[in-house]
Amino acid sequence: EEEEERVLVSEHSWRPCPTSRRRVRGCLEWVKRQLFRVGEDWYFLFILGVLMATISFAMDTLVTRLHAAHMWLYGEIGDIGVLKYLSWTLYPMALASFSTGFSQSITPHSGGSGIPELKTILMGVVLEDYLAIQNFGAKVVGLTCTLMCGSTLFLGKVGPYVHLSAMAADYLGKMRTTVTREYENKFKQREMLVAAQAVGVATVFGAPISGVLFSIEVMSPHFAVRDYWRGFFAATSGAFMFRLLAVFNSEQETIAAVFKSDLKIDFPFDLLETFFFLLLGAICGIVACAYLFCQRWMMVAVKKNRLTAKLLATDKPVYTVLMVLLLASITFPPGLGQFMASRLTMKEHLTSLFDNRTWGLLAPNASGVAEPGGLWQEWNHPSATIYGTLTFFLLMKFWMLILATTLPLPAGYFMPIFIYGAAIGRLMGEVVALLFPQGLYSEGPPRPIIPAGYALAGAAAFSGSVTHAVSTALLVCEATGHLGHILPTVLAVLVANAITQKNQPSFYDAGIIVKKLPYLPPIRSRHIASYRVAVEEFMERRVVALAKGDGFQEVLVALDASADAEYPVVESTGSPTLVGTVSRSQLVTFLQSHKHPQAPQGEKLDTVGTLGDDCAIEPIMLQFSPWTSLHQAYHLFQLLKLQRVFVTRSGELVGAVSRVEVR
Hints:
Keywords: Calcium, CBS domain, Cell membrane, Chloride, Chloride channel, Ion channel, Ion transport, Membrane, Metal-binding, Repeat, Transmembrane, Transmembrane helix, Transport. Its main location: membrane. This is Chloride channel protein. It is a multi-pass membrane protein. The chain crosses the membrane at residues 42-63, 193-216, 228-248, 269-298, 318-337. Among the domains are: 2-36; 271-286 and 329-364 and 374-515, Orthogonal Bundle (Clc chloride channel); 529-662, CBS-domain (Roll). It has 26 helices and five strands. It is globular, with a radius of gyration of 30 Å. Helices cover 59% and strands 4% of the residues. It has a three-stranded mixed beta sheet with strand order 1-2-3. A two-stranded antiparallel sheet has the order 4-5. The chain is mainly α.
């Protein structure tokens, strides 16, 4: 009794006022019930959008200020060539090497864009530690350092930011299960990941509608309509917060487009210009095919080459420093960089290419003195016309972009191809304006060609064809706030996609192929003969199966024969009728609880027992027939996130089909 009194006194001394605490706890429970009456998903999606928008804005602000400081230092050095070269090259080399070393030292999953792995996760494949919270910090720091390198590396942040949003959504999903005291639901986790994809795009471009559509096209072969509102709500919250922070920071007077253009035109394009927009789409499609082929070849070549493979395996920062030194030397402004507008940031590149004026008319009257808002002058060189600088930019950036994709640091690859497509469109628009200075109609009032409209269409067509997406047509409209060229832009995107999808896998699918991720690639062949391919032609016929009456010895042999996660169970050895499956963990437990027939007699374990008596046999929910077509099996694997399906003929087990066979 004295011991009990001492315990009670101890508890009361550590937890005073039990009545007040019960009242406070009851009030908190009431508040939680009232808040979650409309559904807890709204709150977590709002938090996800606001959190990622804040991080994105802070990242952009820090990158902008450090780039301004670097350009100030570069300008204050004077005309000393060696110092200017060192200032231009050492800055990105130090940042890129730190980005690689820091991110890779924490987790090897932080390199690249992250979209190929995220697509694999959404297909039901578990990738260990890919969405771990420590990866979040490594990728934020590494991506910020990568963006600080500026146009020297010419890399963006769309892909890594989608990865960051997915990691934040996964962590918020775990917090949600803690707050609501529910068990962890894989379907709820996938719903949060789907919303995170849209948030990642929306908080970079401030474009919620195209962010949702782009995430559906690029990430999900099958999209559940019930996830539609989640994506739109989270993306709208993120995009609104992202633009609202710009107003609070006195960057803008009101909420406006990220790449605000001055395309205030009453007559955006002539009907006959549709032909040139279609031609632009065809050019972007052909160039995209060449880019995708060369990029995939380069990724494989870097892994096969002995020197680069050794550097990437042991000294990743050294490989990064060497590649960045090469790229920075080429973009050095007094050298070749003066023909590539290398002093502009990536945002300034895009803003200048979307300039409403016709550069071919401005160049003869240029005074050589920098004008306010005269970013186009970076493209005008005395010894080369704007056509020459745009052409040289496209030729050099083609292989420089491909080389930059081999760097083992956190980086996005959508913004570079977006700017590259805008440069293709700008060049074509300037050429058309040169050929037809009064417009395509010689009679009536002059209706001049607007090269900026071609830049919009080129950006959407090239980036859309590389990623196999059509929503980029809407993305350029949301990002610039201009809808006048939406129809020719859509036509250019459709033509470019028709060419690329026929000949090359998308940029992200190519990453899956090179990395050999367990992902189902799309069936390229649409020939009628492919629909006649049946499961029995490619199924695995040698399947390790167990009978209900099997004992210790048979189970041990089956576990040694294969490392499958589950094993089919048939009625008996003489009657292979499939009755269900049993997991590998249950079989291991079965072996641990039973004694081997040849074991010593001293062990206190069961000596008899069969699989059917001591193991829980799960019923078969889905099975294929040998005559199930390839396309049917492929769509079922995608839709239901299947890993392995057994094949039966009249109820008898005849084989199995896994992702390996379907691929």
